[in-house]
Amino acid sequence: MHKKPISLGIGFFILWQIKGKAGPIEEYIYEKKGVCCLLTALNKEGELFTLSGDMRNRVPQLRKHERFFCPVCKEPLILKAGHVRIPHFSHRHHSQCIETASEPESPRHLQGKLDLFEWCRSNQLAVSLEHYLSDIRQRPDLLVEKAGRQFAVEFQCTPISVQSVERRSLQYLSSGIIPIWIVGGQPFHKRRANDMFEMTEYLWSQTMRNNGQTMLAGYEPESGRGFLLTNITPYTSRKVFARLHQWPISKIKYPFPSFPARTNFPYKNWPDEKMNWIQQKVRYGNLMRDSFLRAVYMEGSNPFLLSPLIGLPVKYMESFISHPAEWQFFIWSDCLYMVI
Ligand SMILES: [Zn+2]
User: Fold this and answer.
1) pTM: predicted TM-score of the whole model, two decimal places
2) Both 36 and 139 in a single domain?
3) What is the DSSP letter of 238?
4) Pfam families per the record (predicted)?
5) Separation of 154 CA from ligand 1 center, angstroms?
6) Closest alpha carbon to 197 in 249, 239, 142
7) What's the gap in Å between 42 CA and the centre of ligand 1?
8) Residue 12 covered by a domain
């Protein structure tokens, strides 16, 4: 059987597969075009003023006696109440402020931000709501400071592009700020069994790595419940093994309990899951466009009879978009076949 010599092709294949592409800031503004609500404004003394807790009951009085301004463009703001259920500030029509091109804020998003803000305060964390970071032109929902480190918390209720999530994360990291993404609602697309969930590429982009494992947090303002999906390990890029934890937000205390990486991944299911993946690939894959299938057939191999060393579940395999069988086949084909 003819074998290709060892090539750099595999390196490019891996680089292409690794997630993390960035784009221009204009795309961020375009994607987030909509109506913006603010919960934090400057008062006439130039101090930051947040519409949380008791302040929300004083809205009629504030509307009469106070004036508020945008922390970004300094334009006067309108204090609205009753339009959506949560009192908020809004720019006037035709404002040129960059913040008017921000994400449309649903009552759910506003409520979630406020709940998370109050939670941080009740846990004695130094937190600011909608703090504008002028150097990177970002306005995280919450900016939390703890032990000299800063964390930008983004509560994301509506899906935005994966590129946008990655770009904003990189911008925070470039300023020494650690991004934390919290999805609105449950942190998975579908629950298929007790420990088996479906993820989307968008949800993957918001996962965090902590203590050697991959996690995703969610918060549901309607029920006041916080969710944490831990030990996320993919069977495929969509289907994952994970553990779901949930609590009322009032019962979650800082510092968080630790969730050690457990070796409870159901390895005995893995060969069947791998075979399912190969079956789907052969049945629905396009031979012209599928580099994996094409390479397998070009080498005269049968996709169902590949070496059992191809497609092993390995640590950090979630860093690749493709299935381990796919990228491991190229390592096997380009390198290992020669030496084993
Ligand atoms: Zn403004």
Assistant:
1) 0.81
2) yes
3) S
4) CoiA_N (PF25164), CoiA_nuc (PF06054)
5) 20
6) 239
7) 11
8) no
